[in-house]
Specification:
It contains 6 helices and 7 strands, in the order E-H-E-H-E-H-E-H-H-E-H-E-E. By secondary structure, the chain is an alpha/beta fold. It has a 7-stranded mixed beta sheet with strand order 3-2-4-5-1-6-7, sandwiched between helices. Strand 6 and strand 7 form a beta hairpin.
Length: 181
């Protein structure tokens, strides 16, 4: 498992795609974005069109460990794009319309950490190299609202677990990758 982290639009996805294409012609692209409006639909469409047509795509954000277990075959490479979007989707799926002051963030994090454990186990079992793309959120100011603070904190703890388990970790800044592990 290889973790690729950095800021928004830093070049993380491009690096993951180049690395995956370098180890296999058969790539499973796990896309975690949810289309919520026309702008997001356009982004997803552009991402699909930019990937090689023969790459397989799976879209969703639940139980990604199961997806890796069930969809990956010998000789594949896997790109999971992106961990922070996955975390956001899990948070919103779990909390729904609950008012922010009523959300039990310990419960939310427990759910997310359980799915992270499943993901890590599946990556360890996988016959494929798995490239996980995530955003580094901890380099900015402390967010002013409770939801954003908890999201940043949960994402940071998930990223730490992924980095600890990863064979290699890359930080991408302004299109330049630096191997940090």
């Amino acid at each position: 498992m290889i973790l690729i982290t950095g800021g928004a639009r830093s070049g993380k996805s491009g690096l993951a795609e180049r690395l995956a294409a370098g180890v296999s012609d058969q790539v499973l692209y796990i896309a975690t974005s949810v289309v919520t409006d026309d702008e997001m639909a356009g982004r997803v469409k552009r991402h699909r069109q930019a990937r090689p047509a023969h790459w397989r795509t799976w879209e969703g954000s639940q139980h990604l460990g199961r997806v890796i277990d069930q969809q990956v075959t010998v000789g594949d490479a896997v790109i999971l794009e992106c961990i922070t979007t996955w975390i956001a989707n899990l948070m919103f799926d779990h909390t729904g319309e609950t008012p922010m002051d009523k959300i039990d963030f310990d419960e939310v994090e427990t759910l997310i950490q359980q799915q992270t454990t499943e993901l890590l186990a599946a990556c360890a079992r996988s016959p494929a190299v798995v490239y996980l793309v995530t955003n580094e959120l901890g380099m900015g100011i402390v967010p002013e609202n409770r939801l954003a603070r908890h999201f940043r904190d949960i994402a940071g703890r998930v990223n730490q677990r992924l980095a600890a388990a990863a064979e290699s970790v890359f930080l991408v800044v302004s299109g330049i990758e630096v191997k940090i592990k």
